[in-house]
Write a structure and sequence with these properties.
By secondary structure, this protein is an alpha+beta fold. The protein is 36% helix and 19% strand.
């Protein structure tokens, strides 16, 4: 670039010759230079404006085109994408067979703290201790004033608690949205549902995992997005479940029992309509498990599924049904029932010495140990074991609960003659009440194996045949006579033709042997006995009642049978079973199996 001098020598000399001021020439050149500089600056500014205008037009045009494209497209749910693993927080509902909610989700908030952002850590600790009395005030102060940068305070808050924390006004106390599991019916069906807890969690979401019951057994299914939020439908009827728990709780109190359990199951499908174990718990606030002592002392213990009990005389129908099925006896066959009976060095007694012989029907009706052992001896240990295996009494139940495998029956490792004898009347083999219910359902189902289930479905696979239909029918008729004229007369409910068998077994001591005054009493039943629709099993742990003479009694006929009768009376209308007035039912021996005669309590 060639610059023009402000004072060109030629012009200066000519100006001096003419007497002009040379400074005017410099001023003129300076003004011209400044004008040129301004022109160039103006052109550059104009160019920048053109470029910026073009950029804005291009940006707004792109945005407008994108908005137009979105407006003309079909709406769809947004999908969040992250580089890390996602926390699956959505969990499917659990409903009963009629669609009523048993477990669902509730949107709530978690509370956490950033101590570095706190203005008054000690004041925040004071305020939180007042809102949440279960928090350790000293621990909060230590966490807030130490070197920690993050502190979990509460994993779930109620709206009232959240507002109270807001009122503290501490900027270091923060809230994170999350989803919690809610059981709107409280304790109802608590052992079936089991409960849940938080798994992987962050400040904005948390994974809900099943802890026990069906929540854990179906954990993967409940969390699977492929199910599109479809609920898990259980076979339970919420109304029947509520009625069962109410009656069972009252019966437990009246009979001074430590615990109680009951199950109502459909005969044809094995679907559990109601199942309860007391004492129970609230899955919304699940208690901690016991670390020592008897597990059955914990409300978390499911007596129906996990309990392993010698079930006593309710087992007697099994060797009788097997012997009838194999053609060894019939209902009128006379059996030697002289008591006591000696096997090796052991004596087997009856509760009463009936003397002489008893018919097979009377052996079941009077609950003769000796008569039952005589029948079991006809079968032999090997055939006896195989029949009990076929009934499912050697393996855990298939019910869809995480506790089911822990309820595997305690089967003797050896099976000598004395074991075969004691097992025939319900001692020496410990099983859960649910095992007993499944075995009785097999008898009620014309000898076809029944497996209990908690899932309500239409397609049920027919079980394998365990005994003939005629043997199962005869066994049901014998069980009916136990109620009409035997040890379970207090279980009769007019119009429902209950058939069943009582069982009372001494409770074993933890260190070996048996308690002198503690028993497990149960009543296994089906109704109506001539065409069973439902099986009901009720068990009481350490019951005690007063008999007609004012003396203390613990037998199942006095303790469990009345509770079972009330359950049949309350549950039958709920499940749609109407009372029958027709008494033209099968006859065994000299007694009508459908006799509706009631015995006053």
């Amino acid at each position: 670039m060639i610059r023009t001098p402000l004072r060109p020598l030629a012009r200066i000399l000519r100006a001096r010759e003419k007497g002009e001021d040379p400074n005017a020439i410099e001023a003129e050149n300076r003004a011209r230079r400044h004008a040129e500089i301004q022109d160039r600056a103006r052109k550059r500014a104009r160019m920048r404006l053109y470029v910026m205008t073009s950029c804005f037009l291009l940006a707004f045009g792109t945005v407008g085109m994108r908005m137009g494209a979105l407006a003309s497209s079909n709406p769809s749910e947004p999908r969040a994408q992250t580089t890390g693993a996602q926390i699956i927080s959505q969990r499917a509902d659990i409903v009963d067979r009629h669609g009523r909610v048993l477990a669902t989700n509730l949107s709530t908030h978690a509370l956490y703290a950033h101590p570095k952002q706190m203005v008054d850590p000690a004041g925040a600790a004071d305020g939180l201790a007042k809102i949440f009395p279960d928090l350790d005030h000293e621990r909060l102060v230590k966490d807030f004033t130490g070197n920690r940068s993050f502190v979990w305070i509460k994993k779930k808050l109620s709206p009232e608690q959240m507002q109270a924390v807001h009122d503290i006004g501490e900027p270091g106390l923060l809230f994170g949205p999350r989803e919690m599991r809610l059981y709107p019916n409280g304790k109802l069906a608590s052992h079936i549902l089991g409960g849940s807890t938080f798994g992987a969690e962050g400040v904005s979401s948390a994974e809900v995992l099943g802890m026990a019951g069906v929540e854990k057994a179906f954990d993967n299914w409940l969390r699977d997005p492929a199910n599109a939020g479809a609920p898990l439908t259980l076979s339970v009827d919420l109304t029947a479940q509520a009625a069962m728990e109410e009656v069972l709780s009252n019966g437990m109190k009246v009979m001074n029992a430590k615990g109680a359990a009951a199950v109502l199951m459909e005969v044809k499908t094995g679907e559990i309509v109601a199942m309860a174990s007391l004492p129970d718990f609230d899955p919304n606030d699940r208690p901690r498990p016991l670390t020592k002592g008897d597990p059955s002392d914990s409300p978390l213990f499911n007596r129906m599924v996990q309990g392993q009990y010698e079930l006593g005389s309710s087992f007697k129908i099994f060797p009788v049904a097997q012997a009838i099925d194999e053609g060894l006896i019939n209902a009128n066959t006379m059996i030697n029932a002289n008591s006591p009976m000696k096997i090796g060095k052991y004596l087997i007694h009856d509760f009463h010495n009936y003397g002489g012989s008893l018919s097979v029907a009377d052996i079941i009706v009077k609950s003769s140990n000796v008569g039952t052992v005589r029948i079991a001896q006809m079968l032999g240990p090997e055939r006896q074991q195989q029949f009990l295996k076929d009934l499912g009494l050697f393996e855990p139940t298939t019910v869809e609960m995480t506790e089911a495998p822990t309820g595997k029956p305690l089967v003797p490792s050896r099976w000598p003659a004395v074991t075969a004898a004691t097992v025939s009347f319900g001692h020496g083999l410990a099983a859960s009440p649910l095992h007993l219910a499944a075995a009785y359902a097999t008898i009620a189902n014309d000898g076809l194996r029944v497996r209990p289930t908690l899932v309500h479905r239409r397609d049920h696979v027919q079980g394998e045949r365990v005994m003939s239909e005629s043997a199962a029918r005869t066994a049901r008729d014998l069980l009916r006579q136990v109620v009409t004229r035997g040890t379970a007369r207090r279980a009769e409910v007019e119009g429902y033709h209950v058939g069943g068998k009582t069982g009372t077994a001494d409770k074993p001591r933890p260190g070996g042997g048996y308690y002198d005054s503690k028993v497990i009493s149960n009543f296994a039943s089906m109704f109506p006995a001539h065409d069973p629709k439902y099986v009901l099993v009720v068990a009481l742990d350490e019951p005690s009642a007063t008999n007609s003479t004012g003396r203390e009694a613990r037998t199942a006929g006095l303790t469990v049978a009345p509770v079972a009768a009330e359950l049949v009376r309350r549950l039958s209308p709920i499940v749609g079973l109407r009372p029958e007035t027709d008494t033209s039912l099968p006859v065994i021996g000299n007694r009508p199996a459908g006799d509706l005669k009631l015995v006053a309590n």
